[in-house]
Write a structure and sequence with these properties.
Number of strands: 2
Order of helices and strands: HHHHHEHHHE
Helix content: 55-70%
Structural class: mainly alpha
Distance between the termini: 34 Å
Number of helices: 8
Shape: globular
Strand order of the largest sheet: 1-2
Largest sheet: 2 strands, antiparallel
Radius of gyration: 18 Å
Length: about 160
């Protein structure tokens, strides 16, 4: 019986920080990320279609670095147009807003533009590094399974994602 109590206490420590914030669930973070992707896909997919991006892919030809960078920049610009105001004001994208979670500093404070730029800059730029970028990006994502539920981009930006009230 005593062992069960210890396990319950440990799981409680998993979701609650010393500052009283309750960390967002991994599923909540994934859901928010998927919603955010769905806001950009309706624009980027037709753009790729009309610029011939799918032609090369269907023929097994890897898109050029220039094309990849151009589409990535368009994606970042769209992300900032759609989510930027909410991120700066509330620490939330539309997906995070829909799932009642938000980005704050590790100290639990509102994340400023510099903090958000570090956080998102890491997750946008790392995958673009040839060969090793996708590997680092996979490690970035897998860090969500640590006890702190913080991806590498959270560590770089010194942020965490919590439930918003």
């Amino acid at each position: 019986m005593e062992d069960v109590m210890i396990d319950k206490d440990e799981s409680k420590m998993d979701i609650e920080n010393t500052d009283g914030d309750i960390l967002a669930s991994r599923w909540g973070r994934l859901g928010a990320s998927l919603i955010d992707c769905l806001t950009i896909i309706p624009i980027t997919l037709p753009l790729m279609y009309f610029t011939g991006g799918f032609d090369d892919i269907s023929e097994g030809i890897e898109p050029s670095l220039f094309y990849t960078l151009a589409i990535s920049l368009v994606g970042v610009a769209l992300f900032l147009l759609i989510h930027g105001k909410f991120l700066v004001r509330d620490g939330q994208t539309l997906g995070k807003k829909a799932l009642n979670i938000k980005i704050v500093t590790v100290a639990g404070q509102h994340a400023d533009v510099t903090t958000l730029a570090k956080r998102y800059g890491f997750s946008w730029l790392i995958p673009l590094i040839p060969v090793i970028g996708p590997i680092i990006n996979m490690v970035n994502i897998l860090f969500i399974f640590t006890k702190s539920k913080r991806c590498l981009h959270d560590h770089v930006g010194e942020t965490k994602v919590i439930n918003s009230n």
